[in-house]
């Protein structure tokens, strides 16, 4: 027992500290410190230094641009190869059906989805820094591409005689329409790739931070609704036009409902059967995740079954079920994208470039954190830019990271992008050898695959309750991103969501929390007096804190909150003083006049007695001294004149502004601060600034904040330094021993 008590006493003793030092203001502190000498370089010297090349620097840049040169020579074959092979095959069997399905979303023939699942995946192996993400087609980006393609090449743009029943004419119509839409999609991929390349070389990888998690989740949820709506016509076997732009979701649903009576029952049965099988397969994979060596590839199984049933029952001819159709065998010759389309799709390309990068880098960061390696955001931009721009010469559409395939690639034992390369090889085999086997595949099967893969994104509706409990502002961002993207379209919706997110940042800086701080007894720790019972204020000293920087947008609110929280409004106090002085002067004047009149009315037999009486009356009166009235007491004021301030002037002699949360001050903020110091000085309150950081000090110096009336002696290293200095100045603690 005694040993335990000694141990507790020892622990208690080690948790205390005692510091005895002078009270530091910035003037005194800077006088005792010596700044390091820094040699500033001219612009020419900095450019020359950056352009200087050495073998070490060249090697570093080469490894940064081609990360494969760094990890491939050190590739541990025995440890990694088997896992990469299994992962590559598993990802490849998902890549095939998703490539075909997401091509429909992009409004291009399915074979172009296969091209987009080969070239970019192969290129990313050389230039990407993530070891686990799966590059290729993705629902959200494909949907954005499809909306642009449909907008630029609507169904009505290709002329077709409405009375024509010739099958050849109809086929030529669809062929011409699809060819033009492919040109738009390819131009979009080329331009988005160039934008990503430029952003990467300019080191703009930080742009992803502006797409916050609530914004991305709200945006992708709206995109999932767009995708789901666009697939209804394929699931039901209905012929409707495809819409893009604002309210496209509403128009698509209205078009489907208007033709719901023409539903192809055979297509609906096949689609619903595939949805049930896919959901069962996903549930099995989820429940028996640890027991299964690899996930069951339900998507490729459904594709094979659907193709076999369609071929055996001749669904296209017998039941009018739409099928994939012609899949050209072999790779297409490279061709230059249609450059003249660039002005029409520039804004959309910017949106796709940013969304694609955001999706890829967010997934890459998750896997990098889990497996203990780092990724380079700028290099990821360059890698995606190369995949999109170079791939566009081989007729690919815009690509990014796929969430579902990335999870499969990582969970099945993938260690490096060798797994991605193997999945690309599988796609290549289909393109050059067996692609024609998938021509009878019903489009409703691809629609089922797309819809089931939206399950994860549609679950994000649960974010509403989560953000409601945690942060109302993040909930507002989520709702704004969802509603704007749903009704304005994905391009304008993203722009609106980013703008709204920026506005919330401004709102937070304009609506900060203001606090009055007090001391925890016998410490140099200061906390909110309204939050803790133990915290006490020093008599005559107010410590004010605002958790924001001081700049043009919040300078007025800062001043208002300061007056409200401290209970001292210098303007109101000076106004009340002037009113009291004027009232007192009027009272004296009225009293004098009354007495003079009273004296004049007196009838006295002796003029000398009258003069003596007048002199006596005047002498007994309170006349102005040296031409000035005597100061009137503030206590003589009426209650109305006290309403602007809580405490009398004598109870507050010092005001300390805690600048710990302040990150920057602009010219308006500096003028506001100077005005505060001047106004409070007029009513006898000394204003000090505590815990001002070095960068803020430098900004104040550049803004000519310091002069004869405002010196560095008003700035203190800490709140406690300022409190002790204010006590010394007031004389209440002149003899105190200032150590803790």
Automatic annotation (TrEMBL):
Q: Which residues cross the membrane?
A: 100-127, 133-150, 184-211, 249-280, 292-313, 341-361, 418-438, 475-507
* One of the record's GO cellular component terms: lateral wall of outer hair cell
Localization: Membrane
* Alphabetic keyword roster: Membrane, Transmembrane, Transmembrane helix
One annotated GO molecular function: secondary active sulfate transmembrane transporter activity
Give membrane topology per the record: Multi-pass membrane protein
GO annotation terms (biological process): regulation of membrane potential; sensory perception of sound
Q: Which NCBIfam families match?
A: sulP
According to UniProt, the name of this protein is: Solute carrier family 26 member 5
User: What is the species listed in this Swiss-Prot or TrEMBL entry?
Assistant: Taeniopygia guttata (Zebra finch)
